[in-house]
Write a structure and sequence with these properties.
Blueprint (H helix, E strand, L loop, with lengths): L1 H69 L2 H10 L16
Length: 98
């Protein structure tokens, strides 16, 4: 019986070792898959933020051009003359203050 009993104990030790090694490998695989998915998600988020940044840079350029156009002296003069009916004063209308 001792030989049978010893063989059974070795089988149980081998089986428990296989289970422990399998659990460790499975946990390692799960951690690897999770980290890979997390990395991929972060890459998508970074790409989205880069796209948003690029759009904001383009909008900023467009707004700078629009700002320069709107504050142009020629444009302001044209609006004052055409829409507001303003004109340069005559020589008699100018009063110098000392």
């Amino acid at each position: 019986m001792s030989a049978k009993h010893s063989k059974k104990e070795r089988l149980e030790i081998k089986f428990s070792t296989v289970i422990i090694v399998s659990l460790v490998l499975m946990a390692t695989a799960l951690i690897y898959v999770w980290s890979h998915l997390h990395f991929t998600k972060l890459n998508y988020l970074i790409a989205e933020e880069i796209s948003i940044r690029d759009n904001l840079i383009e909008e900023n350029k467009r707004l700078k051009i629009e700002y320069a156009t709107l504050r142009s002296p020629q444009r302001i003069e044209a609006i004052a003359r055409d829409k507001l009916g303003m004109h340069y004063p005559e020589r008699e209308q100018v009063i110098f203050i000392k």
